[in-house]
Design brief:
By secondary structure, the chain is of the alpha+beta class. The protein has two domains: 43 residues; 99 residues, Immunoglobulins (Immunoglobulin-like, Sandwich). It is built from two helices and eight strands. The strands form two sheets. A four-stranded antiparallel beta sheet has the order 1-3-6-5, with no helix packed on it. β7 and β8 form a beta hairpin. It is rod-shaped.
Length: 148
């Protein structure tokens, strides 16, 4: 009987503390403001890749030549950026990108190699860059004409 009364007393005490927390508007406001500040800070803390050029024209070249294009960029955000993947539309294009995190203020280069052995005429290609940056999916474009 004594144990049952003690359990009931503890339950009432816990219920009173719970009611005090949620019936007091200043505590709720404080919790809400704290959550808002945390989410706001997380939203602002992101890396950002800024490319000097996202479109390049390699002009006229002969079939069989290798085109090498350098896309320079800088992390203008306030968090490190990690490029997870770089995809080209076709097998004639390969992409080299930094595998280590790019720190805020640091610059680097994405190298795109376009092999023209199997292509001719007008070429317009897109390379997709996936990262943890503000714009997680960015596109780099290059075009030109391959002569026979």
């Amino acid at each position: 009987m004594l144990l049952k009364q003690r359990l009931q007393q503890q339950q009432r005490l816990m219920q009173n503390k719970f009611n005090l927390c949620f019936k007091n508007p200043s505590i709720l406001r404080g919790v809400f403001c704290l959550c808002l500040c945390v989410f706001w800070h997380c939203g602002l803390s992101q890396g950002e890749l800024k490319f000097s050029e996202v479109k390049k024209n390699f002009g006229f070249i002969k079939k069989g030549e290798l085109v090498i294009l350098n896309f320079k960029f800088i992390n203008s955000g306030n968090m490190p950026v990690l490029i997870s993947e770089a995809r080209a539309e076709c097998s004639c294009t390969s992409v080299e990108y930094p595998r280590e995190p790019i720190l805020p203020g640091q610059s680097s280069v994405i190298v795109v190699k376009f092999d023209t052995k199997s292509t001719y005429d007008r070429q317009d290609r897109i390379v997709e860059i996936q990262s943890n940056a503000k714009k997680s999916n960015q596109k780099l474009r290059f075009k030109g004409v391959v002569l026979k």
